[in-house]
Structures are given as C-alpha cells and as structure tokens.
Amino acid sequence: MTTPLRISLLGLNYAPEHTGIAPYTSGLAMGLTQKKFSVRTFAAHPHYPDWAISEGYGAWTSHEQLRGVPLTRFRHYVPADPRGVRRLASEISFGVRLLCASLDRPDVVVAVSPSLFSTAIAALGIRRRTPFVVWVQDIYSLGVKETGGNEVVARIIEKVESWLLRRADRVVVIHERFADYLTMSLGVPRERIEIIRNWTHLKDSELPDRAATRAKFEWSTSETVVLHAGNMGVKQGLENVIDAARIADKRGAPVRFVLMGNGSERDRLAALAKDVERVEILPSQEDELFAAMLDAADILLVNEKPGIAEMAVPSKLTSYFSAARPVLAATDPGGTTASEVNAADAGVIVNAGDPAALLDAALALAVDSGRSEQLGRNGRAYRESVLTAGAAIEKFSRLLTSLANTGERRSTPGLKYPVNSGL
Length: 423
Prior knowledge:
Shape: globular
CATH superfamily of the largest domain: Glycogen Phosphorylase B
Largest sheet: 8 strands, mixed
Radius of gyration: 21 Å
Order of helices and strands: EHEEEHEHEHHEHEHEHEHEHEHEHEHHH
Oligomer: single chain
Number of strands: 14
C-alpha cells in the first residue's frame, strides 16, 4: 500500500469561518483528504470578519478533527480594530506560533497568503529539503499602494513579499493578472507560478422559495434589492453605496441597497447610514441563508474603493456567479475585478466612487429583465465551466504530488534557508 503524501497546510483563517479566504483553505484541506492525501491543518481560532474570537474557542493550543481533517488551532492576538500596527502585530503573533510548532516533517508545506507576515515568519522554519508552496489570494504590496498606504511601509512590504514568494518552490495564484504582477514587479520566476482558480464554496441545494426569503427580510416585491455580501473593510469603500442610497432617497427611487456582513468598517458605515432610508445593514449569515439571500436579491454588488485595481479578485464573485443573478461592479474598469466580470459576461461595470452612476446602473438593470436574466445565466455558466472545486483540487493534487516526488528545493540567489529541526 502506498503511503499517503503528508501535507501541512498553514492558514490564518479556517472553518467555521464562512467568508473571505477560510472556505478555500478548508475546501482544499478536505478535497485533498478525499484524494487520500494525509493533510494536517494549522490555523487560528475563528475570528473573521467580526475580529473577535468566536464563542467556544480561544485555548492557547487546541486539536480537533474537522470534517476528516486533523486541525491544530493556535491562539493569537486578535485586535478589535485590525488596522495598521495592530494588524501587523496580529499576523506576527500567528507567525511566531507557527514557527514554534512541530509540523511532523511533511512531504510538502502549503501556506496561504494573506496573511503575509505570518507566512514569512513560518517560512523561516521550514526545512530546506521540504517543498514549500505559497497560495496567494491577495497581493499585499499592491493592497498597500492601492489603498493609499505609507510609501515607506509599502516598500518594506514589497521586499518581504518578494522575498517570500521567490523563496517558495511554487506560488499558486488565483488569476492570470496576479501571475503577471508577481513576475514583472516582484521577481518571481514565471516557471514557478501556477494558476489555480478559486471556486464557489456554496453547495448546490434546494433553496427556500424566493418570495419567502424576501418576506423574511421585508423586501418588497416593488423594490429592486441590490445586495453586497461579504467583508466591510477599507478596500470595499462602501460609503459609496450609502451615498447611492442617499441619492435614491432624494429621487424616491424603488431600490434598496443591502450590506450583509461584518468587518472593520461596519460600525462607521452604520453611523453614516442611520438617516438613509434605502440602505440596510445586516450581519453575516450561515451558508444556507446566505445562498437564499443571494437568490432572493435582484442584483449582486461588488464595490471597491477608488484606486483598487489589481490587488485582489473578490471571493464573493464565485458565489455571485453561482446564484445566477446579474452582477453590478463599482470598480476600476481596467482592473482585475472588472476583467473577471467581463470574462464571464455576467454584469455591468461602473466607475468606483461614483454613487450616481451606481444607482443609475441598478435602476437600468431593474427595468431590463431580459438582460438581467441573461447576465445571470452567463455567470452561472462561467462558474460551472471555469470555477469548479473539482478542477482546482485536481490541479493542486498534481502539483503537490510532483513536488513531493521531486523532493528538491530550488535555491534563490542571495537567500539563505535556515533549518529548524522542529519543522
């Protein structure tokens, strides 16, 4: 009998978190386990997007078996306001926990970034001959630049990110444009980059009656519901949506903007929206109700802060496409998000930071039911042909098997690889 390949998967976020990166880390661990890999995951306690450790969790170190995957959780610093130095301290604290851990000499280590700094710290302890893969969901250095961060900080982050990704034996990215940036701007050899697309984590299941879901949330049949689902952070720039709702109030437009989720900006957005009638802020929902709400909405919204163009592919798009509803994206028309929506032919693009254009586009989709239905069908078809979990897990399986069988680390000029006997 062949001994299963041992994979150590390092990721700050993991189930039962159901937004952001956690569903992909969890899905990879479970998918590889089903393919007979021996996967052990090292993660933090669930805390995102609320930025508070969930009830029932919080031990210094805990061990569990979650959906067939052995899982070790570490307590780390979770700031209530995850910005600036506090966010950095949070990542460093998790990285130190990983560095001090024993990964049981795996055949391959896979680390998920973000978080960048915890991954970089953990990388210091990976044995030289152990193949090392970094799975890039967001590009940190671009994020700092595109959100208007300090230039000195941006340069430091770029150096760390370049060092980490050049040190890896393979870098997995979720979009072709990520691969281009890593090669041209961070110096990662193109032959070390693999493109493996994300997938929807929502299961295909029978949903409640659409009218019942709308009634549950008191969404009138006479209004167009524009739903933004997911994190409420700086890069989402959701004050733009509140401004669009304020314009809708003045016009008496039959539209309701719904912001569903949590995040560092939620309280500020709630304060901005307190005198706005046509906006509603709801907490995150479990997967079943989340899917029902996507189905019950008329339009699904991606909103990004002006200047955000290349740093990330919103994870919500996979779920939006699955819901077969038209997507409205307020973003940079030349950016990665717009390119993904256009590739799927699944929605409409308006400029980021233009609330009047956002409202006008929503109202135009509302009165053109034929176009809206076609865009929704296009998104679903794109998800089924391009963004499937099966295809992604199979690509990871082949990549990890190849690396483990090769068993050799590439060397990066100018870099030294420390050896930690515990890892």
